[in-house]
Amino acid sequence: MDTRWIRGLAAVNGLSLAVALRRPANLRRFLATIWHSYRESAEIGLPGRFPLSFLFESGRASFDPGDRIVFPPILEGGGGTATHELMHLAAIAHVLKPDCIFEIGTFTGLTTALFILNSPQARVITMDLPPDAKTASGDYISTDIDLIRSREVAHYLGVLGLTGRYEQLFCDSFQFDPAPFENSVDLAFIDGGHHYECVVNDTEKTARMIRDTGLVLWHDYGGVGDFLPLAEYLEAIARRGKIYKIPGTTLAWATGKELKRALGRVNSAAGA
Ligand SMILES: C[S@@+](CC[C@H](N)C(=O)[O-])C[C@H]1O[C@@H](n2cnc3c(N)ncnc32)[C@H](O)[C@@H]1O
Question: Which domains does the chain carry?
Answer without folding.
Answer: 1-44 (no CATH), 49-262 (3.40.50.150)
